[in-house]
Each structure stands twice: as C-alpha cells, then as structure tokens.
C-alpha cells in the first residue's frame, strides 16, 4: 500500500519512485484500475508503460447516474410528479422501499424524459452481465441509443464514455474495480472523523498506514516500586 498527497499525474511518479526504491521494476505493473481522471491516465501512460488501464465500472455508472439526475432536475420544473424522486432513479430497484417501489412502477414506463434516461441507464448497467465477446457490440448499440436520445446530459456522458471505451471494456478481461480501495477509504475517513482532523498531511498519511494495515501495536507497561 502507498499513500501520498495530491491528485495529479505526479502521484504516479511518486509511486514509481517508491517501487524502484523497493527494487521493483515499474514495468512489472501490467494492470491499473482508476477513474477517468486525465491526470491519472497521463501518469499511468508515462510511468507504467506496460500497464493496461481499466476504468472503474462503478465510476462509469456514477457518471451515468449524474446525467440521469440532471435530466430529472431539468424536467421536474414542468413535471411536479418528479419532485423528491431523486433517489428512486439512482438506487437499485431491489433497494427501494415499498413506497418508492410503487412510485417507480407508476413512472418508469412513461414517456417522461427522466424515465427514458433511466431505461438507458439500466441498459448500460446490464452490459456488465454480458460476455467478453459480446460486450463491445453491446456497448456500441447502447452508445447509438444514447446519442439519439435527444437528452443533452445523456448524449454528453455517452460521448465521454466513447472516448474511454477501451478502458471501460478492459474490465471484461481484468475484472478489476476500485471496490477494495473504497473499502479502505471508508476506514480512513472514519479515522479522520474520530481524530477531528490532523495537524499535517504527513500525520494523516501515517494514520492511514496504521489504520488500513490493521497494525497490532503492543505496549509494555512497567511498574515502578
């Protein structure tokens, strides 16, 4: 595990130096999973030339969810029925309570723009269940549907995903996600809240290592008589 300050391409340089100090050749890294940050992409390509990039599928769906919510917020001005329904469209159906499920049944198959955006979202979500051989064809069909939707936020996100298609479809070979990292991050944020912040970044990083690595520190006590 390695932690450093920053969000730019320099963090990949720092990681490469860290590996070399441990006598590990950066070219041994053949798979990387990240979001679609241009800085991360640039850093990986520069410092880890042998690595294939998989774009985290949960981040992909997050972008689509954000586009869906933009459609809803624009449409609810003229469609009051959409007010206070944000989480109904963003949650998985199995996680809806009975009231939310009933509302969803009334709205999802209508001609509302939000309902159309929702169906486009579900279609992309279903892509992750397809086989490696079929995924490319499925993505192309989804993309063509999305850009013809005349829903500006959906069209915009579809074009973004098209630019990153190779890394998105790489998941069907690597099966990599940032799920483990997100789990570690939850531990880190809990430690941060518990301490109510840290005086320096260096102290925070030290606590990250201590927390995420689950170190067992034994303290000996001595009685003075």
From TrEMBL:
InterPro entries associated with the record: Transpos_ISL3, Transposase_DDE
Origin species: Neobacillus pocheonensis
UniProt name for this protein: ISL3 family transposase
Domain of life: Bacteria
Matching Pfam families: DDE_Tnp_ISL3
Positions of the Transposase IS204/IS1001/IS1096/IS1165 DDE domain: 2-208
PANTHER family membership: TRANSPOSASE FOR INSERTION SEQUENCE ELEMENT IS1557
Membrane-spanning segments: none
């Amino acid at each position: 595990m390695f932690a450093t300050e920053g969000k730019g391409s320099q963090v990949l340089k720092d990681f490469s130096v860290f590996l070399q100090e441990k006598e590990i050749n950066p070219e041994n890294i053949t798979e990387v999973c990240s979001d679609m940050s241009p800085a991360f992409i640039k850093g990986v390509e520069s410092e880890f030339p042998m690595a294939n990039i998989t774009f985290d599928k949960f981040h992909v769906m997050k972008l689509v969810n954000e586009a869906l919510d933009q459609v809803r917020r624009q449409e609810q001005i003229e469609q009051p029925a959409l007010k206070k329904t944000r989480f109904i469209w963003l949650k998985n159906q199995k996680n809806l309570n009975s009231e939310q499920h009933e509302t969803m049944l009334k709205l999802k198959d209508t001609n509302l723009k939000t309902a159309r955006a929702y169906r486009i979202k579900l279609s992309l979500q279903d892509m992750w269940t397809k086989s490696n051989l079929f995924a490319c064809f499925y993505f192309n069909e989804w993309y063509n549907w999305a850009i013809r939707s005349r829903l500006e936020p959906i069209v915009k996100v579809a074009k973004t995903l098209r630019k990153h298609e190779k890394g998105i479809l790489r998941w069907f070979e690597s099966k990599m996600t940032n799920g483990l990292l997100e789990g570690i991050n939850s531990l880190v944020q809990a430690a941060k809240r518990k301490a109510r912040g840290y005086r320096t970044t260096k102290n925070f990083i030290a606590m990250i290592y201590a927390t995420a690595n689950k170190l067992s520190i034994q303290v000996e006590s001595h009685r003075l008589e």
